[in-house]
């Protein structure tokens, strides 16, 4: 490949130097007017992605599915859901991306399938070879096997009348968990991965991959320890064996990006997944920094405590600096919009969106940009529960009312609007045309009403837009190894408003200063920072000084990046 994705040796693989763009296909671009985004629609936007400068696309599930969880409930791993198109459309996406040096990473959802998958149908009938494909448990219909809770709320077990047994589902009841102890299951999964690799995919994003191994005997969990049962299924006993086997059989000796989604993983766990002696994953998605504002669960939230947030980021930066590699993200299809959560989606929408982008592109690790983040898309209003589409949000509202925690939707509306996953799933805002230029039909979920102001068309022609800034950030990231590989050091850890850090690689140095507050402030550059030779390379304010003063006067949400000039012959270039 040419201008991007160079990488090349074991220490500098392409995916360390890449910026990845996440596409949630249902909401990206609809080509046929049925209100659902599709692959032909994505192919039409290849130039947009090329122009933005990203190196890879992570495509959320597009496989055969009854869509109980928008495709994370797969009924056929080797076909495309008709609403998205067919395999020819998929190959077209692959080809238009590859022609632009953009790699394609597929979502791999193998902790569970849909209950409409052929394997589950056969298992339910106890057909030869399939009886143990899932976690079944004999018992009375009113006595679930244990007290585990589903991540979507309620018990993690449902009784299947057809088989007369209970089955485990850590998510929706339409998402039964596969039994990874069964070697036939593992072989089927490996075969399916191989099939996609033969189709030319460049990697996998592995959905909740650290949940695949459950404690033998499926014992009760401690109800006081957060999600009940988690200690028996998160980072479970055989998870590393399973991943190593997958690596040896399928992934070894290939130039792939393999990112595991690992809720509840600590730095020590992550090192086992990604470290030099680990399971062969390129990186993981850890959750600590996106649960920092949660109380008992995601529906009880507080303001983001900056000092704690910085400490978490610094811990992960240091923890994987020599052993492994970080992914860097603030948003995805499961999180509220980052500008509404970590920034200010009112007066400072543009400024704070740029600041947050500055953060994700100047940490050590691979930045992931979630669709719409690059134009500063915000959380959406959900005036009635009928506007919600996500099974998790709908369950939450239903249970809150059922359990008497709320009298009606209005009582939980604020919580829903701050936290629901549907915030991230409103249609991509392409223009100020009807339905944001996303579809000619009726969108499957309402557009955010702010699309007249926040849209790609408008941002494209505005040099001061969030989009223009992201383009610059991504280009800068490609130019400077310092930003990719440089050592990270947190400065002024206790400053409640300013997130400042240095980067260092061979003779090159960087200083990044972010005022994560809606008030102006000043920042005294710590004595350990050598200000000499540092020059401003990007900022979200016009009047930022070109060199580093002893004290920086910072406007609300002001972000500045100072680097020493690039030295010839640096690492990787
Ligand atoms: C994590 C995915 O990101 C999320 O969208 C999905 O609901 C669950 N895993 C279950 O597959």
From TrEMBL:
Alphabetic keyword roster: Glycosidase, Hydrolase
One Pfam family hit: Malt_amylase_C
Name of protein: Alpha-glucosidase
Gene Ontology molecular function terms on file: hydrolase activity, hydrolyzing O-glycosyl compounds
SMART domains in alphabetical order: Aamy
Domain Glycosyl hydrolase family 13 catalytic: 22-425
GO BP annotations, alphabetical order: carbohydrate catabolic process
InterPro entries attached to this UniProt entry: GH, GH13_cat_dom, Glyco_hydro_b, Malt_amylase-like_C, O16G_dom_2
Species of the source: Saliphagus infecundisoli
SUPFAM superfamilies, A to Z: (Trans)glycosidases, Glycosyl hydrolase domain
Lineage, highest ranks first: Archaea, Methanobacteriati, Methanobacteriota, Stenosarchaea group, Halobacteria
Isomerase listed as a keyword: no
Family: Belongs to the glycosyl hydrolase 13 family.
Presence of keyword Hydrolase: yes
